Amino acid sequence: MAKLVLMTALLLAVLVAACTAKPDGAYQAQPQQLPTNIEQNIAQEQPPQQVQIVQEEKPHEEGAQDRFYYVSRLHWPRMPVTYFIENEEGCGRYEANRIRRAFRDISNATGNAVLFAQANDSGSADIEIRCTFIEDCYELSTDIRDDYVIRTETICQHPLGITKTLAEGNRLTKAYIEMVGLAGFAETKHEGPSGFYVGTCGHTTTEIHELLHAFGYGHSEDNSSIMSPEADVFGLTIQREGACKGSTKAIDAAIVAELVNTYSGKAGN
Q: For residues 66 and 263, what is the distance between their CA atoms, to the nearest angstrom?
């Protein structure tokens, strides 16, 4: 009798195992019933929101906020480039207006690929601009003869502008521009023409020349280039009639093309 009971128990165990075994020999875990309160909490939860991950290209230098990091030549990392005229009152209305005209001329030439905006102070500006004046550089003499008058004027050789740029790798970080005028005129003695007009034809050539230095362009040996060291030099204020006619210098086509290619976001190198 005991043997019969034992054999019956073994047979039942085999039948149970046969009902729960998978063909590959792995046992199927039996589902566990969750407590009622946990099932209710899961049912009430909102599905997770989908977050779109945008893959942004990183600049070559870690942490650098550079919109134009792919440009290999010297460049400003953002647009617009900001500026501040430190001593605008000392520069005088004439030169301050000429500086702003130069900004507009560059923007217009590049189809607004290059833009400028005035900063609130010099510390936050990309380009700091100041005006200085040279003393005892200009002399005008008059020699009265019996039947005629000889007027002679001389202007010493001096830089019309000086630019210093700072860079980290191929990124420009700061530029300092000093515009140089002659003392003894409207800004310093409050008489006569502007000390920035004397010796020029009043164009924005010098200002554009210095601003292009601030964009990383050097001097050119081509006398027709706006980057020629003598792009805006006229030795005298008493000029022959029509001497200034046709003296305006346009920005070099190659420079315009490169500026557009750099700051329009289409450059590949």
A: 11
214 Cβ contact list (under 8 Å, min separation 6): 127, 163, 165, 172, 175, 177
Cα–Cα–Cα angle for 177, 75, 166, rounded to 5 degrees:
45
Of the pLDDT bands very low, low, confident and very high (cuts 50, 70, 90), residue 46 is: very low
Q: What is the rounded distance in angstroms from the CA atom of residue 162 to the CA atom of residue 175?
A: 10
- Is 42 or 138 the better-scoring residue by pLDDT? 138
What percent of the chain is predicted at pLDDT more than 70?
Answer: 70
Domain boundaries, the chain: 81-263
Q: Please state which architecture CATH assigns to domain 81-263.
A: 3-Layer(aba) Sandwich (3.40)
Q: Is the pLDDT of residue 61 over 70?
A: no
Q: pTM here?
A: 0.72
Find all residues with CB under 8 Å of 184, minimum gap 6, and list them.
135, 138, 192, 195
Q: How far apart are CA 207 and CA 205, in angstroms?
A: 6
Q: Which of 199, 183, 264 is nearest to 235 (CA)?
A: 199
For residue 237, give the nearest of 185, 190, 162, 161 by alpha carbon: 185
- pLDDT per position as a tens digit, 122-143: 999 999 999 999 999 988 888 8
Give percent helix, percent strand, percent coil of the chain, each to the nearest 5.
25, 20, 55
Alpha-carbon gap, residue 45 to 50, rounded angstroms: 15
Q: How many helices (H) and strands (E) does the chain have?
A: 5, 7
Binning pLDDT at 50, 70 and 90, where does residue 236 land?
low
Tell me the chain's radius of gyration from C-alpha atoms.
39
For residues 3-13, average pLDDT: 42
Q: Rounded to whole angstroms, how far apart are CA atoms 97 and 237? A: 20
